[in-house]
Amino acid sequence: MTVKDITKILEELAPLSYAEEFDNVGLLVGDHNMNVTGVLVTLDTLENVVDEAIKKDYNMIVSFHPIIFTGLKKLTGANYVERVVLKAIANDIAIYSMHTALDNSNMGVNAKICEVLGIQNAKILIPKRGTIKKLTTYAPMPNADEIKSALFKAGAGEMGKYSNCSFSTDGDGSFKAGNDAKPTIGKIGETHIEKEVQINMVFSFEKEKSILSALFKNHPYEEIAYEITTLENTNQNIGMGMFGVLDTEMDEEAFLQMVKKRMNAAVIRHSKLLDKKVKKVAVLGGSGAFAISAAKKADVDVFITSDLKYHQFYEAEGQLVLADIGHFETEQFTKDLLVDYLIKKIPNFAISLSESITNPIKYL
């Protein structure tokens, strides 16, 4: 199995197109065609993680955070980033990062937090914009069903919990083949009228390439008329953060104690308690201050995230409780998610959870 094979499996869970524009995801170090001896999964790729991979004779590291975030102009070993990259290159170890691609996946970071905390019926808190597209194409009537089936198989026509969704309209298509054309139907130099079906299907933006490939492969015409438009509809499957409900409502303090225990948090920084029951909860792994307004709009009782600044706690404004449990703490179970996923996909392959400590923050 090659690096490319492993990354293809990971991108079924979190396509790289899900990542934010500022991010640096994908294969950061290594050769796509290298044969993989084993995969080590970590939250951060530090020197001790690379040493662990060397010791285990694993030559691929799957890391949540990217070790290379901004451009590297030198590789002299002057800082921890350069030392990690140099050591990985010297030992033929590939490094792959998922970061915000996994943040935006509805089976990723925030889904795992919801699982750990027992939050049910979770929905995306901030849907990613511009991720739903619509294909409109035209097919001769005898070929319409075959084309629609091929498009469905490629991932078109999926809406939430439904698949094979489409809308078709019958009509007359016209065209005149030029002298160099090779028309499937009609004659060169003559305007031809064909009974056609207009086919409309929505799809998730990361599937565009495979959907167009299916269209070109299965359509009988030499020149295929089609349009792709980007929709503003809310995508319930891709985006930052999640919110849902607890099975049983809890007192605020009891809820925060439960969060502290289950998330292994040394301390929880929170805004003023409101003396209300907690039933509806929002979560966002990593730095989540930008989602406070979305949490308010979702009318949650508590918003769990990290890296809140002093003045951002004022933004609670008596509408909800803001709880900062720590950056590492919100993302720590991401490693388990990835290991479980890879073992399920590749059951007879060397895959391990890193034992190296990578949390840079200590508490007294």
Automatic annotation (TrEMBL):
Pfam families: DUF34_NIF3 (PF01784). GO terms for molecular function: metal ion binding. Keywords: Metal-binding. A divalent metal cation binds at H65, D103, H327, E331. InterPro entries: DUF34/NIF3 (IPR002678), DUF34/NIF3_bac (IPR017221), DUF34/NIF3_sf (IPR036069), N-reg_PII/ATP_PRibTrfase_C (IPR015867). Transmembrane segments: none annotated. SUPFAM superfamilies: NIF3 (NGG1p interacting factor 3)-like. GO terms for cellular component: cytoplasm. Belongs to the GTP cyclohydrolase I type 2/NIF3 family. PANTHER family: GTP CYCLOHYDROLASE 1 TYPE 2 HOMOLOG, NGG1 INTERACTING FACTOR 3. Homohexamer. This is GTP cyclohydrolase 1 type 2 homolog.
